[in-house]
User: Fold these one by one.
Assistant:
Number 1:
Amino acid sequence: MTVATAVAGTNIALVKYWGKRDEALNLPATGSLSLTLDHLGTRTRVAFDGGDGAGDRLTLNGSRADGKTAARVSVFLDRVRARAGIDTPATVVTDNSVPTASGLASSASGFAALTVAATRAAGLDLAPVELSALARLGSGSAARSIFGGFVEMARGTRADGTDSTAHPLDAQGQGPRANAWNLRLVVAITAAGEKSLGSTAAMTRTARTSPFYEAWIGSVDRDLAEARAAIAKRDLARLGAVAERSALRMHATALAADPPIIYWNPVTVAVMARVRALRDESQGIPAFFTIDAGPHVKVLCNAEDVDRVASALGHVPGVLRTLIAAAGPGARIVEVA
Ligand code: PMV
């Protein structure tokens, strides 16, 4: 029996994914583009050892998990088992270094680490692009965390989703290695606790009820092209402008859903205003925000400015704490026993 441990960094989308063309296969309605982070992520150990005797046993951040999370992991493991031709339940031990279900994309690093650990534990040897397609079935954004640095996820056109996979922009000569472009991401935590509405339910409601949804879908390709060009030129101001408008448009379409989906709190808005003020000061700091399916704000800046940005955001009343991350590598095995 193989016990495999994998780690994955979470990723933050600079051009957002918000909407599915197929809900069962988790196929995105548009492409997206993200930055994989270094130490904010997940470490997961998997062994197909019989689990708890009756089924899979999942330990999440030190406690036994049941209910929806455990069911979602078991459904995913069923796909791995089917592919490997085994039917043994598994023991999964997983720890997040990002707050779970807070809009900090723990599902991205979580399913990327689970994909890499579970396939290895099951004796499968999959190419990165196959790992990306498999991770996508767990969580759309997880497909991107298989790769490091700047990553683009393709919408794909096939019904079976085999072309809905991510690829690293760095490896294809489309941009500088993200590590060489010394960027940082500052996360301003604006609330404690879990988010109110999960991304899948929110995307479905947006697609069904928001009058802005079609316009949102129609706007993404242009943003992807602009983000690719900005990355190729290492133009932070250009990349930041796309990131801010992509996030605001994603939230605009969700805000217009019925009933409306409001992820922001007053501190979220105050942090956005502070970021704009930082740029507008006489010694303006290039800093640009993005916001996911939660109230926290993530701010992209140059490494040389990160302390000033983190300090400014940390002083916004209501910000609980700040985290700093840099670009990181893709999901990988760290231990096999
Ligand atoms: O991977 P999911 O299904 O949790 O969706 C992620 C949605 C956003 O984080 C809001 C945007 C993105 O592209 O990561």
Number 2:
Amino acid sequence: MRKAFITGINGQDGSTLARLLLNKGYEVHGIVRRNSIPEHQELRIDDLTNEIKTYYGDLEHSSAISRLLREIQPDEIYHLAAQSHVRISFEIPLYTANTNAMGTLNMLEAYRLECPQARFYQASSSEMFGTGIDADSCQRETTTMLPTSPYGCAKLFAYHIVRNYRKAYKLFASNGILFNHESALRGSNFVTGKVVKGAVMIKLGMLSHLEMGNMDSHRDWGHSRDYVRAMHMILNHSEPDEFVVATGVTRSVRDMCDFVFSQLGLNYQDYIRINPKFFRPEELPFLKGDATKIRTVLGWQPEISFEEMMIEMIEYWMNKLKKS
Ligand code: NAP
Ligand code: GDD
């Protein structure tokens, strides 16, 4: 039985990946922070408690991580834990850098010293591209990376140190450069989760309006289930490498709002107010990924459309809020 070790196992992707790996017959281990938000733990992994093995752990506590990797001896390490909110990274940049950059280095050192035969996946991000964009308006593995947030800068350090460790120590360490991906398990302070939850609350008479930031930025949104499948394929490739994971379709935040409110029979313009609080000091205005490499080399392709994903999220919040 293959063993997987997941950091961030109670996050959107960690919990979705745990389900995928359990279905594939893996023994799944993961760390959860002692002070983690209880709502997230219950929501995302409580139904898995008899199937996965969780331990208290924090990326900052390198000795505890080392001990766990020594004892477990995983075949595959999925390093997904991070302070993952871009706007919040402007409010707590040092914390974000410690967690996302130094935390990754802590993980790599523990991996190199305790279980170098394992394979290591790093949750790299399209936020690393920032304003870098190719002439055809796409971002791909070769696009210049010019991050526009403390989050993006910290992730770029992590991306490079993973490459450095791969080459320096001959480790199987890969970067998945994932564009935005969502699901019903998405935190409700990310834009899709916020808009779906807010629109459903308006529909149910629980909220009068929704305050938003930049409606004109564009994102390439895919589904978390498709993207954790890509993570597994990346680690099971014959060699370590970098792969962009994206749908290749981009939409504005405004268009996403229009779709969600329309599904509920509402006009988004009647309910959305702009609040400067939700703007970022520097914005990443446009993301559109070219996933040709992973499509051709690994045969990955997304299976869930944007519309199916948003409807799944609406149904989830409608059922949840109707019961409350
Ligand atoms: P998420 O839902 O915010 O999950 C992040 C996880 O990291 C949570 O379980 C969180 O635990 C944990 N964590 C945070 N700080 C930690 C620390 N110091 N020690 C241990 N665990 C810690 O994020 P996600 O959407 O699943 O994303 C997974 C990874 O992919 C992240 O690294 C993110 O930056 C990256 N990524 C995400 C996307 C996307 O669109 N979703 C795209 C590209 C890359 P708590 O519950 O305790 O906070
Ligand atoms: N969160 C949020 N809240 N975003 C808003 C709002 C709002 O009220 N109003 C407009 N936006 C815009 C943001 O300015 C941004 O341009 C876009 O919506 C998407 O914001 P988020 O959903 O917070 O995601 P993100 O793109 O900043 O970051 C996500 O994707 C990255 C990959 O590109 C996160 O999942 C990161 O962890 C991930 O690396």
Number 3:
Amino acid sequence: MRKIAIFASGEGSNAENIYQFFQKGNRVRVALIIYDREESGIARRVKEMTGVRAVYIAPEDWTSAPQRILDLLADEEIELIALAGFLRMVPQAITHAYAGRILNIHPSLLPAYGGKGMYGMNVHRAVIEAAEAKSGATVHYVSDELDGGDILMAQEVDVTPDDTPESLCAKVRLAEFELYPRAIAMALLRIPPRINVDPAASAATAEAESASQEPTPAPAQTETAIPRAADVNPPAIPGLTPPATPAEEWAQTLGVRYDAGKVKDALGANPDVEQEAPGVTIVEIDGTPRATSPAGAPRDSDATDREMPPTYLVWSIVVTLLCCIPAGIVAIIYSSQVSSKFYADDLAGARRASERAQIWIIVSFVTGVLFQSLYLPVALLFN
Ligand code: GRF
């Protein structure tokens, strides 16, 4: 189980979406949510989230007591921090300890409409005023440059002539909901499973920071000062190759085998499948453009994922038949004895044969049901 933390200040819709997304699986958990506004959407939403440690850190404590936050992160064995509408500078002690492990989401296609003053509705207003045809959301690693860290993934939405800043905001938010959890899963695949924080070093940074007593300027948009992600990229992890496509990413997340070749063959029947989806497009994963369908709609990769289960289906039917057939044959033998014994006036024998036939019919049925329902989990265990 890999654990992440979320820092949030505002409505908390992304935080809630990330929480719900990972609740569906058992590989990643939102273990900790730290927020800095007592009267906020996130403060309310977090009460509904089970198994999440929710901690309010008062604004003044972010600069004076970063060690407390580091301790919380260490206690919960946090491997990655996702900023979701977090409107405060992350203390350097944290950015140093979690270098390359802090993500942020921005409501535009960075680098466009990023930087000073570009936050909230300002972004959407500027996009509409410039009559852009596309906008979207970008997940990036946090760097010392405002909205300037290395881009991990982005997702486009169409801007239509009747769009208002509010309607565009709603569209972009949907794209964010689809994008951010996937970007987090992708980032986790790239980093070693356990964070290697040097407690002495981060404690020293925390101490130096609080000793300096310098007031931290409140940024208009989330920003931190850490090396660029490219400088802190962790080494490749054996057996944990970053996925090349969303379908592979999901196969890895689900722990199932995925044969891209077979899927390609299956898609060959419909070569237009990637062009059919207008609207939202994953524009960059490791610099490679990828197509997908509109936010909220099933993606093409979802269609390709459906190529995997038939293998399980065929084998589970074969295994089920193999397991219940022997018991079924015994049931048939006993059944055939019932009439022959009855006509031979062996009523007691006919009754015994009938009872045995019933028992074996039940055994055959139960074995069939058991193997049918256990096959998939057992197969996944050995996969
Ligand atoms: C999102 O639009 C995100 O892109 C930006 O702040 C907003 C947060 O919204 N960084 P919420 O608090 O998650 O609802």
Number 4:
Amino acid sequence: MKKIGVLTSGGDAPGMNAAVRAVVRTACYLGMEVVGVRYGYKGLLEEDFIELNMRNVCDIIHRGGTKIYTARCPEFRGEEAVRKAVDVAKKNGIEGLVVVGGDGSFRGARDLSNFGLPCVAIPGTIDNDIVCTDYTIGFDTCLNTVQALVDRLRDTIESHSRCMVVEVMGARAGYLTLNAGIAVGATAILIPEIPYDIEKNVIEKIRRTASTGKHHFIVMVAEGVRFRDGITVDEIAKKIEEETGVEARSIVLGHIQRGGSPSVRDRVVASQMGHKAVHLLHEGKSNRVVVMHGETITDHDINEALEMSKTIDKDLYNCAMEISL
Ligand code: ADP
């Protein structure tokens, strides 16, 4: 293989730049050229390319977002677009592609591999909702950002003896909310994977902890709860205030969670994954996804990876419930 491409697709995540940098540097080390495909699959269809080399990926390892841009490209779900993308790659001498993104992007990589462009995917999403891997690039940075933001909220609710109901991004998964909830000392945590009852899991808990002297409360709610049940943090806050008498406010953290300089963990894991992805392509592998099991970087077939099912860590959830007295 003489030339490969790299793209970032779907939602951005801190650490994507570190992955792209590692892809480029590893390819250079192995004597291959690298084309940066801007704006994900959309850029592949539109031949929106830039040359990446060992020097022009300097100064990006510490930056959030993605310097080669990202996009959603709905038409890529169709066969015609995938065939066109394979032709575009062939015309430009691109013999393999590294795709950094979530499981939607993996499906695109699988389709490209099936139509003759060898692809290796890297899990890049703040949500950590990808079944086949214990870790996704961006999760640690995002978790630290949520913790820092909620720590600030705690200062103000503590001063006013209030309750703050915080909506945390995370698509349909509760990993960010559960981990952040433990880190910020939340009184209640609502995630889509675990059935809940607002009366029992939130109102009663606030009443009980208030009776033991607590006077400020943090309730962490995954956005997946709103997606699934339609209930908003504002509605939850109103209910808390009505039923407990504690003044309650709500906040949606939203996109502020996504930005910021990647943490050490995200930079290191992204570098390892980018390095591994290029070695897989160089060895002639296709339709693979780089994953992390425990602390080990390995790889899976994308089809098998997409069929696995991920469950929330019940021990971690029980721990959160028992220590939030
Ligand atoms: P993520 O990769 O973060 O899960 P999306 O689900 O939005 O984000 O997917 C990113 C892009 O991957 C989509 O815009 C589309 O181009 C491509 N994609 C998503 N689902 C499929 C699919 N079923 N088949 C082919 N390509 C897909």
